[in-house]
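pinging the channel bc i need a second pair of eyes. not urgent but kinda urgent?? the chain im working w is below, pasted from the shared doc
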Amino acid sequence: MRRKPSLPFLAFLLASLAACSTTDARQAPASGAAAAPPAAVTVWRFNPNEEVQVRGGDPLYVETGPHVVVWPAGGPVLSPPYTVRATLQKHTGRVHEGTGLLFGGSDLDKTEDHQSYSYFLTRGDGSFLIKLRRGAQLPIIQDWTTHPAIHRDGEDGGRPNELEVRVTPADVAFLVNGTEVAHYPTSRFMVRGIAGLRVSHELSLEVTGFQARAGVPAPPARP
């Protein structure tokens, strides 16, 4: 005659099944659940390496002598559509020195006459710049232009500004603190490549929330 399972054995079996179900739920989130945000950058590369200090991950602290380009180690090569954003706060430095985002970068670890990237800077007088580097050539897309969305330096130093670049196959939008300050056709830029930061001369900068990820939010309303 077949023996019935004992009550202790049944309790053990039910507990084991419940534990397996819980583990599976954590490993396979429900369909339609929001994707996890990208992990914070913990390792950064920068060029040049002399007279520049880069420490931390998020927040990241950059202290410059010469201007520098900074990018996440192992960062992806992005193609449109994608979004790059970060919040930057200058702690010390002259009002006219710019800081901001770069995108479409290549050969960033080489000398400047071999580097290529597009970049978007703001500075302490409330203005922004959009520019390219093609080796020794530095074509300007939009020269320094003031905009009320940009926080100006105060008596105790710089105020934080959130910069964002939204790159699509058709155009590139530039935002500061959630407000679009400019947009241009994508054909005017180098857009396939690494994203990172560009930091000007002799200043101390804090960077938080750096992201470079595929896809763009819905476009902002334009007049």
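so The longest helix spans residues 7-27. and Helices lie at 7-27. — does that match what u expected or am i reading it wrong
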